[in-house]
Amino acid sequence: MTGPPVSESVHDSSLSSSGRALRLSVALVVFGVLTVGAFVANDDDFPFGPFRMYATSGQATGEVAVVALQARVGDGDWTLVRPSPESVGMNVAEFEGQLTRFEDDPELLGAVAQSRQRLHPDDPPWTELRIVLQATEVVDRVPTGEVNETVVAQWAAP
Amino acid sequence: MTQVLSHANGAVTRWWFAPVPRARIAAFRVLVYAFIPLDVLLLRPWGAAHGYVEPELYRPLLIGRVLPLPTPTPTLVHVVQYGVVVAAAIIVVLIARDRAPRTQAALGALAFLLYLEWMVISFSYGKVDHDRFAFLLALAVLPTAGRAALRDMSTTEAGAWALRMVQIGAVATYFLAAIAKVRFGGWGWVNSTTLVRAVVRRGTSLADPLLRMPWTFQLTQWFILMLEFTSPVILFLRPKFQQYAVVFLLSFHIATFLMVRIIFMPHVVCLTSFLPLEKVLNRSQGSQRSRRPAARPDYRPATEGSLSSDPPLA
Q: How far is CA B160 from the centre of its chain?
């Protein structure tokens, strides 16, 4: 190391050979780890995980499922709640990412209800909350418009 | 043999360190740091809501567990959110006035750390976004590029390396996204219903009619995978063709936005690292100067000082 890179380049336009070697080594490490990450790492290894946006393959015939919340207060009607930073602090993709946790432990929905209470302290607290999967049928690549709803986790205030 | 090696060595050095104008570094810094407030306050302010989410729903990323970073609270998220905005705003002002290069570098390092923590806060609740590796890399390397002013046409090697890093980061985002598609979706990804699924979930009125012609999506998927796999070519094109390639990629991202309302803005900002940004400012400045003396016969060079201390972006 020849000291902070800033001081060496403030007045001089060319880099010392050690300045160059240091930079080439950094590049090798950063892109080396990133490339290995693309093959073996996961989202957990951010920022060196794989760039897996829209990387999964959907079947030509099957279902396209979207997560939604349904909540109610006391004996009132179930109302549809789209998960969002404004409504409960988390969005649809985040619920999908933690979906197995909710399936394994529906009590976790209590934490969602509490988060919503912190974001909307003036609203009456939800006493029941459930996660539903809204699945749109797709037949041979074309959505039929038929939507099936299934409850995957349900919670009631103690 | 040694000749061949030294020849290769020379080529590598030229590719990484061929000097670029400091004005280009300064202009790219302005774009990057000016984007931060836009990003954390308007486009992706969601991390802030995580401060109010119950700790049981926090699933810290590896980096958050190793360091270990604190569980988000309302105070933490807002300190990070506004801290990075203030640091970025000060940097932009200092660049415009060409003041305090060391303070710029120190604030740049701070902005990188705060933005990284902002990412950890944003991505530790079940969803990681993949559109900002190059941007994070830009924040990491820009403080090492040395002093740069918007009208300084002298050149820098440190700046050349920094831009190269961002360019490779941007191209790697495409190329490694193709790798990920093959890894997770298999080679059959090109014929799968991934885009149909995306349009069902968040399609616009422009994309929805295409659902009746699913072959359009299939064709687009072939196109996307080929584009991503061939993207590294951009790194080795002549500057003029690099600029065409960037315009092409920008149209691709805009079309994607019109179809499914997804645009990888931080990534788009990084694509500008391929452009001769210094020309925008210095061309207009040149024409301004050549016009002024003609319009004002009493024009004196003494006003030059006040002219160059004006914020160049105003």
A: 16
Residue B155 CA to residue B152 CA, distance in Å, equals 8
Q: ipTM of this model?
A: 0.85
Q: Which residues of B74-102 are buried (b: 16+ CB within 10 A; e: fewer)?
A: eebbeebbebbbbbbbbbbebbbebeebe
**Does B93 score more than 80 pLDDT?**
yes
Tell whether the model's pLDDT for residue B108 goes beyond 60: yes
User: Per-residue pLDDT for A143 more than 50?
Assistant: yes
The contacts of residue B70 (CB under 8 Å, 6+ apart) are B76
Q: Tell me, what's the pLDDT at B284?
A: 56
Contact residues, chain A, for B63 at CB < 8 Å: 46-47
Query: Is A114 within 8 Å of B186 when comparing Cβ atoms?
Result: no
Looking up tokens 């951010």 gives A46
Mean pLDDT of chain B: 88
Tokens linked to B295: 């319009």
Beta-carbon pairs below 8 A across chains A and B: 222
pLDDT confidence band for B125 (50 / 70 / 90): very high
Judged by CB atoms closer than 8 Å, whether chains meet at B189 and A115 is answered as: no
User: How many CB atoms within 10 Å of residue B229?
Assistant: 16
Mutation for testing the B interface, residue in A18, A35, A57 having most B CBs under 10 Å: A57
Q: How near does any CA of chain A get to the CA of B147, in Å?
A: 5
Per-chain mean pLDDT for chain A:
87
Q: Do B147 and A20 touch (CB under 8 A)?
A: no
B117, exposed or middle or buried, with CB in 10 Å at 0-12, 13-18, 19+? Answer: buried
With 0.80 as the threshold, say if the pTM is over it.
yes
Distance of alpha carbon A82 from alpha carbon B287, whole angstroms: 54
